[in-house]
Amino acid sequence: MSDPQQQAQRALRNALGAFPTGVTVITARDDTRDSLVGLTVNSFSSVSLDPALVLWSLSCKSPNLSVFVPGRAHVIHVLADTQKDMAYQFASPGVDKYAGVDYQLTEAFPAPVIEACTARFFCEVHQVLDGGDHHIILARVLRYDASDLAPLLFAKGQMMSLDTCTAP
Length: 168
Prior knowledge:
Elements: H1 4-16, E1 21-22, E2 24-30, E3 35-41, E4 45-49, E5 52-59, E6 73-78, H2 84-91, E7 103-104, E8 113-114, E9 119-131, E10 134-146, E11 152-155, E12 158-161
Antiparallel strand pairs: 1-11, 2-3, 2-6, 4-5, 5-10, 6-9, 7-8, 9-10, 11-12
């Protein structure tokens, strides 16, 4: 059995999991390793409309910390409810995150752009803030697009779609 601190952290995580969130995939280029970076994130939130700012968080243990520095371009993809497998793929360490993923690399924006998402936010890191065991990435939205596709949701440790949720 785990120690009391681990039990308390698990209980807090379970309580926080009662709040449903959307599921995003963040993509960027790592120029130092000449590779593509991608990760699944559900800690995404709007911050400001003027200026247009959003935030998301990244574990202090992430091997991708050095990629997300002020000025760095990245795309936040709000996944559609049909992209559950993609969410798991980008959350899995040691796999080719982009295998079988329909994405584009263009000169117009220096980060991979995944197709068929609910919304996409083309951003640059504005500020990186200390957030305990995570870094909070405050990002300036440079442009965005959105579709009518239903979003993928995450709550109580499970991914789901709007049609699997029951109304109160």
